[in-house]
Write a structure and sequence with these properties.
heterodimer, A: 483 residues, alpha/beta, ten-stranded mixed sheet, two-stranded antiparallel sheet, B: 346 residues, mainly alpha
């Protein structure tokens, strides 16, 4: 390399490093804005619900019927416990539809045994095309439970079958292994009562790793002892408490978690249901609902309510976690590509001008920028074109700023909900908030890059997830106390 | 040296913010951990006394003990006990709340300029069942959640005095207010009928919730507006009117409901089918049988459900229609399976 070439390369590397530093500064500052927005929203929500009696709502006739749709695939370890918990949710008019998506294990047998299922002649709306239904069952013990056995077609297809048989005005889409807090639906329905034009509402997903689960209910919460689960607890808190709540004031949400969300059935059916062949079907549906509402000139309100809680199990193996993150990023890329017309389009208001650009430039492209930043920084330091003070600045802006936002989220959660009661849990969470910057965050960058590559190669498989079952988890949780 | 000044400054700033946040986080956790048992002990004492007040009149010493509690604990203890009560127990508790100064406090707070204070005060006033001249102004409050809470307060009093103000809230643009006003009118019951008749007769958006409440109250005075509204141009109004007619029953309601089987709107047909099933008018089984061929799945489902409700005449129709491979046969077959399930037959 000649001196001139070296100068040009140095200049290029230096400029790129500065641009990446600026990117992180802007992104983390936007996160700080989201956090402030979330804090304001939390204060308003807490004030609005102070002294509110959910018990009164149970006595009010005329609340819309809710159908909980639970697609089940390879869930034999958890299905009976989670469906039992669904059937005891506090809501006056509730229907539970479990869609067994051609599961090759004993999921259906477990349901038949657990709920005294009896075959009934299958009937369904033909509004959304799906894979064929094999059988339909009603529970003799609990007629509110309907089980549909169908040919395997993926989660979106299973949810669409649920939509075709649901009789509720609102449908609550969940994952079969999700444990919903008993009062969660009563709290979530508030979003539809509070303002007109609400299409969907989502609640908080928390991780049950480290929790004591009894009869499908989380009865005692501790910070997980496993590193990978602990890191995800912090991640989930950040994602939901400021990642979602903050958007309520900045244009509404673009994601309702597939693990727990409540939708207007007529709106979802009119939109054509969940899209087949999409790995990010939950986000894609919300974007489509909002887009179509905007195109019709109707309200496109999608709300996040922080206090309805659903619990799920985080993967504790790197291989499974990497597949999950790969899939999430493929789903994000797929959704944004399908709806690329929204990007920077004034016709769609905040959806086109704020939300979609944020998801493209921050969420989608962040792993590329972060990977370039890390590689560029190391390379620059080795070649001597990036100074040590600049590297320190990069670290402070990218990771120091991020760690501050994470601790602020922990503080917001503590000030609002106090789910963790022991001091050692708080110290553990603080530890996870710091440790995640050293290795874990870089790993997620790699996994998300894999997702982008997969999207470009048009991969659409889901990747498996082995459930340990909350019953097992309960055994683990009680062992130390018993010994 | 200068090159390091900026990173050092940023690092120091980040460290300071980080330490502040950690102190806030751990400080709050520690404070709650050590203070909460004390607060909880006070509140538990308050809850015990309020619970005692639901069974018997409190003596002076008990009242003094309640008054000695910090106001926030007194209010919290009262709210937690009163929220799950109704009837005579709640009435006795309301008297105690007045004796220990909660009503006077809430009335002061209800005039505050901050919406959240007015809202919380209205919640406490609702639980105290207090009658106050503040209610009409809170029903017109600029904050929708305060209006909704005031509506709940008016409903808890079960007096017709606020019925017209509540009926006006059925036109509110915020669903939470309409929801609370509807429930309040339902709880007021018979005394709310004149206001409901007026709302159901008008052309505003309040006709639907008014008819829905009329459908729950089933008062003969709502028959006239419900019959007129059953011919309304808006399907949702027609559906609400038919539900109100179904609640009243009688030959004319029955005729209207059966006529609605031919309505152009599927939602109206569904309501009519369900209503005939609820009225258990077995003579209408053949008309319901025709709805088993309806193009809309929900109408077919409602018709099958109604036929199940009709008992033997409905079952005969279902068995008859279960032959063949039409959509009607599918639905009839399904309904018969559900009947077998209900009766536990194989």
């Amino acid at each position: 390399m000649t001196a001139l070439e070296f100068d040009v390369a140095s200049f290029g590397l230096g400029t790129a490093a500065a641009a990446i530093l600026a990117y992180f500064l802007v992104v983390n500052t936007f996160y700080a804005v989201l956090l402030v927005s979330a804090a304001l929203e939390m204060v308003r929500h807490r004030r609005r619900t102070r002294g509110e009696s959910l018990w009164r709502l149970l006595q009010v006739p005329g609340l819309p019927r809710i159908t909980v749709i639970s697609p089940a695939y390879r869930e034999e370890a958890t299905i009976v416990e989670s469906v039992s918990a669904l059937l005891t949710l506090s809501y006056p008019d509730l229907e539970v539809v479990v869609v067994c998506d051609g599961s090759p294990d004993a999921t259906l047998d477990a349901l038949k045994r657990g709920f005294s299922l009896r075959r009934v002649h299958p009937v369904r709306r033909g509004l959304i095309p799906t894979r064929p239904i094999r059988e339909m069952y009603r529970s003799q013990a609990t007629p509110r439970l309907l089980v549909v056995d169908k040919e395997n077609g993926g989660k979106a297809d299973a949810l669409n079958v649920g939509l075709n048989v649901a009789t509720g005005d609102l449908v609550c889409a969940i994952d079969a292994d999700t444990l919903i807090a008993p009062d969660a639906l009563l709290r979530l329905i508030g979003a539809f009562i509070a303002e007109p034009g609400v299409l969907a509402a989502g609640g908080t997903i928390r991780l049950a790793n480290g929790a004591t689960v009894r009869s499908g209910r989380v009865v005692d919460l501790h910070a997980p002892t496993e590193l990978l689960a602990g890191l995800q607890v912090v991640e989930y808190l950040r994602a939901f408490l400021f990642g979602r709540l903050g958007w309520n004031r900045l244009g509404g949400n673009l994601i309702i978690s597939g693990a727990f969300g409540l939708f207007r059935r007529d709106a979802v059916v009119a939109a054509g249901g969940y899209r087949h062949g999409s790995v990010g079907e939950d986000m894609e549906l919300v974007v489509r609902l909002r887009r179509q509402a905007r195109e019709r000139g109707e309200p496109d309100v999608v709300r996040f309510i922080p206090d309805p809680v659903a619990w799920t199990e985080a993967p504790v193996s790197l291989a499974i976690l990497s597949r999950q993150r790969d899939r999430w990023h493929r789903g994000l890329a797929d959704t944004l590509w399908r709806h690329r017309r929204l990007l920077l389009s004034p016709r769609y208001g905040a959806l086109g001008l704020v939300l979609v650009p944020y998801f493209v430039f921050v969420e989608l492209l962040a792993p590329i920028v972060e990977a370039l930043g890390i590689v560029g920084l190391v390379l620059g330091l080795l070649l001597g074109v990036v100074s040590l003070p600049f590297a320190v600045m990069f670290f402070l802006v990218a990771y120091g700023y991020g760690a501050i936002l994470t601790v602020a989220t922990l503080a917001l959660d503590e000030l609002s909900y106090r789910k963790y009661l022991r001091l050692r849990d708080h110290l553990a969470l603080l530890g996870f908030a710091l440790i995640e910057n050293f290795g874990y965050r870089q790993l997620t960058v790699l996994w998300r890059l894999g997702g982008l590559v997969g999207f470009l190669r048009k991969r659409s498989e889901w990747g498996g997830m082995e459930r340990r079952g909350f019953a097992d988890q309960y055994e683990e949780s009680v062992r130390p106390a018993a010994s | 040296m200068n090159e390091l000044a900026l990173p050092a400054f940023v690092a120091a700033l980040e460290l300071a913010v980080f330490i502040l946040l950690v102190l806030l986080y751990l400080g709050h956790a520690a404070r709650k951990r050590w203070m909460e048992p004390l607060v909880e002990r006070r509140r538990e004492a308050g809850r015990s006394l309020f619970a005692k007040a639901t069974r018997e009149w409190l003596e002076g010493a008990d009242i003094a003990q309640l008054r000695a509690l910090p106001l926030s604990d007194r209010v919290a203890a009262f709210v937690s006990v009163a929220s799950s009560l109704d009837g005579a127990e709640r009435d006795r508790l309301a008297d105690t709340a007045d004796d220990v100064g909660l009503v006077a406090w809430a009335e002061r707070e209800a005039r505050d300029r901050h919406w959240h204070r007015r809202l919380y005060a209205a919640r406490v006033l609702t639980l105290t069942l207090a009658e106050s001249e503040l209610l009409p102004s809170l029903l017109r409050d600029r904050d929708p959640f305060v209006r909704a809470q005031a509506a709940e307060w008016a409903g808890a009093q079960r007096s017709g005095k606020s019925a017209h103000a509540l009926a006006r809230l059925l036109r509110d643009p915020v669903p939470a207010v309409v929801f609370a006003a509807s429930d309040a009118l339902r709880r007021i019951g018979s005394a709310a009928i004149p206001a409901l008749v007026e709302a159901a007769s008008g052309d505003g958006g309040d006709a639907i919730p008014a008819l829905e409440v009329a459908g729950v109250l089933a008062d003969a005075r709502t028959f006239g507006p419900a019959r007129r509204r059953a011919e309304d141009a808006r399907p949702r109004v027609r559906a609400a009117a038919l539900a109100a007619l179904a609640a009243l029953g009688g030959p004319e309601s029955e005729e209207r409901l059966v006529a609605a089987f031919a309505d152009t709107d599927a939602g109206v047909r569904r309501v009519a089918a369900t209503a005939i099933g609820r009225l258990e008018v077995w003579r209408r089984a053949p008309s319901l049988a025709e709805l088993l061929d309806d193009a809309d799945w929900d109408v077919r489902m409602a018709a099958a459900g109604a036929l199940r409700n009709l008992g033997a005449p409905g079952l005969i129709v279902l068995r008859d229609r279960a032959r063949g491979s039409t959509l009607a046969a599918d639905m009839a077959h399904h309904a018969l399976d559900l009947v077998a399930l209900e009766h536990g037959s194989p």
